[in-house]
Specification:
The structure holds 2 protein chains of 2 kinds. By secondary structure, chain A is mainly beta. Helix content of chain A is 10%, strand content 27%. Chain A has helices at 6-17, 31-35, 39-42, 270-276, and strands at residues 88-91, 117-120, 139-143, 147-152, 158-163, 178-184, 187-193, 203-207, 210-214, 221-228, 234-242, 251-260. Chain B starts with a helix and ends in a 5-residue tail after the last helix. Classes of the chains: A mainly beta, B alpha+beta. The interface between A and B is large, with 76 and 71 residues.
């Protein structure tokens, strides 16, 4: 039987009784303030985690972390030949450190029905939200009996895939969606629904300073078939994106990841990037 | 009846054994409150200047003024506060190269590299720079370079970026409780070193960790307004 000190018990009870603290008045960024951000921030097109123009993070300190798009690549042998063991660090050689320019995946915006293209002055990345996924990206996979956890190099997300046959009822629509998986032989079949596509969208382009975003419908459905090579050196992900409201034919993409030495990660905070460009997220000091 | 009881006891024991074997890996939620006390139940020994600032921040918070707290505008809470923040669950994943603390809170990720005696990177960073090693099933992490615009807890316990935390993570109670023993050394803020203990309860491995975006949750990024405005 473990022991909890009395003061900890009392503190726990006290904290339960207190209501959640009210927020002070927070100054929110207006649309014009976000639009007024310097050009190098406006160059962050939707889907690009690899920056066109590097953000100035201040003086480079010896021993400081590498920029987010510099993933050291050291190929090593996968210690596991178990075809159902996907653990390890997997590298997408076509998208080092992040996504392909332009978002990588989905339905090209030119194929979209006009009514589903939303135009806005604001780039979603400035809002520090989770991109519409799943999309090809390097990262580490952890695995246990109940799920896979994918920790992407781009630290705007960790994606979880739960083993099972039923999606979470009434799950909210999110950037990562609701993913479940089962094995077909040694192929992991992942089924994802509940993807929120009205913010970041399936595809985007920048025209005349305006972001045109192809909005995914709530019926967007992604099926992935993931297989590990017999020597454990590669992981192949065949993804099929289906959204009949947007495009009659499914969109297919295959990504082959390579097993590499874990390059560890970096401390990337989207909210700090906004601060560096004068985005007013409140009065507290940075 | 006795056989049913013995069967239930066996199932429980097997589950506990499995939990213990998992070590610190798993999904956890805080038992301890987000206000640190020493292991003797006292307020940490702040020096005079730090105590004055702490009391001023507490007084402001009592009036609903959190302008002193960067977490109010979705800055990362830092270490160890993030583990306690809003009692949101977090997942610990272990590999030979690193340990990840994956938080529901604003989908933050603390990566602890199991590397040599010096941290790979200097900082300052929100979670600091850690060196870590295993002592049996106990993860021992030394953390330096924690950004000064974080506080050790939600009450506003301050620190400088010269603070050194030594953390020992291990499980007790058949693997059902995660215990974090933390030694704090920050002579610029405290009159002496001090220790605290944080407790966390294990949740089922398939606990759904929600996709939390602080800026959305607090509507600080105005996305609802902005993205509902179609300009063409």
């Amino acid at each position: 039987m473990f022991h909890i000190a009395r003061h900890q018990i009392l503190a726990l009870l006290a904290s339960c009784l207190l209501s959640a603290p009210a927020l002070a008045q927070i100054e929110r960024p207006t649309e014009s303030e976000l639009d007024a951000a310097p050009k190098q921030f406006q160059a962050l097109l939707h889907g690009k985690s690899k920056l066109i123009t590097p953000i100035n993070r201040g003086p480079v300190v010896k021993g400081s972390l590498p920029p987010p798009d510099a993933t050291p690549v050291v190929k090593i042998a996968n210690p596991s030949r178990d075809p159902r063991d996907f653990t390890g660090y997997w590298y997408d050689p076509e998208a080092p450190g992040g996504q392909l320019p332009g978002g990588g995946v989905p339905v090209p915006i030119l194929d979209a029905p006009p009514g589903l293209v939303r135009t806005t002055k604001i780039d979603a990345e400035r809002l520090c939200i989770v991109d519409l996924g799943p999309q090809p990206e390097s990262g580490r996979i952890y695995q246990d009996k109940t799920k896979l956890t994918m920790v992407y190099n781009n630290q705007l997300r960790a994606r979880r895939i739960y083993f099972g046959n039923h999606h979470t009822p009434n799950a909210p629509f999110t950037g990562n969606g609701d993913s479940i998986a089962h094995w077909e032989g040694n192929t992991l079949v992942v089924d994802t629904v509940g993807l929120r596509g009205f913010i970041t969208g399936l595809d985007a382009t920048l025209e005349g300073g305006l972001h045109k975003i192809l909005v995914a419908s709530p019926n967007l459905h992604v099926v992935e078939r993931i297989t590990k090579s017999t020597d454990g050196s590669t992981l192949t992900d065949e993804a099929t994106w289906t959204d009949p409201s947007v495009r009659a034919a499914p969109y297919r993409e295959t990504t082959v990841y390579e097993y590499i030495q874990d390059p560890l990660g970096y401390d990337f905070e989207c909210e700090d990037d906004g601060d560096q460009f004068g985005l007013k997220y409140g009065s507290a000091n940075n | 009846m006795i056989r049913k009881f013995l069967a239930l006891a066996a199932v429980f024991a097997l589950g506990a054994h499995a939990a213990e074997a998992a070590g610190i890996a798993g999904v956890w939620v805080a038992i301890s409150p987000n206000k640190l006390l020493t292991t003797t139940g006292q307020l940490p020994p702040l020096n005079a200047a730090a105590a004055a600032q702490y009391q001023a921040d507490l007084a402001a918070a009592a009036k609903g003024d959190y302008s002193w707290d960067p977490v109010a505008i979705c800055k990362p809470p830092g270490e160890p506060r993030t583990m306690l923040q809003d009692r949101m669950p977090f997942e610990i994943d272990v590999s030979p190269a690193r340990v990840d603390f994956l938080f529901q809170w604003n989908r933050l990720d603390r990566i602890i590299g199991i590397v040599g005696k010096e941290p790979l990177y200097v900082g300052p960073y929100y979670f600091g720079a850690s060196t870590a090693h295993w002592e049996g099933s106990t993860l021992v992490a030394s953390v330096t370079g924690i950004k000064e615009n974080t506080t050790l807890d939600a009450a506003g316990l301050p620190h400088t970026d010269s603070a050194v935390l030594t953390e020992r993570f291990h499980t007790i109670n058949g693997g059902q409780i995660l215990e974090a023993d933390i030694h704090v050394s920050d002579p610029a803020t405290y009159t002496r070193d001090w220790d605290t203990k944080l407790l966390f309860r294990r949740l089922p491995d398939d606990t759904r960790i929600k996709e939390d975006v602080c800026m959305e949750r607090k509507n600080l990024n105005n996305y609802a307004t902005i993205y509902n405005s179609v300009t063409k």
